Amino acid sequence: MTGALSGKTVALLATDGVEQVELTTPWDKLRQAGAKVELVSLESGSIRGYHHLDKGDLFSVDKTVNEVTAEQFDALVLPGGLANPDALRLNTEAVDLVKHCVQADMPVAAICHAPWLLVEAGVVKGRTMTSFPSLRTDINNGGGHWVDQAVHQEAGIITSRKPDDLEQFCDALIAALG
Is 68 inside a domain boundary? Predict the structure, then answer.
């Protein structure tokens, strides 16, 4: 699979509180497939990953949301964790980036609690998706239809429930980009 995504650039949108494995696994898999990966966040510097509620590693931010546009990327990955997407959905630039990536019909992949950003961006209406089970009501209230599946892919949006689904999540993302 090495090199299959050569020439593709993927944004990982995350901030402090990101579920570390949901950041690092797609990052590693995309890079192994040849994609350029950029960590986009709310502020420059670094963000703190978490292993559920325990502090994890620091990750250097490549660009801030106010420095990028959807047109600079071929795909967008939204890792989960509880605090990460909750903070991101309160930031207008982050929400706009998500909305513009969906409108550009590029692959947008969201796992765990990250579909909160899709709800906030107003792009779930009429779509079927999955997430961590506690977001079911939010997705349904946003006009979407929630399903309990390891991965669901529809109209360019790839969603997954939890870290146990990462292998299938990454495979679906790489296939969508390839």
Answer: yes
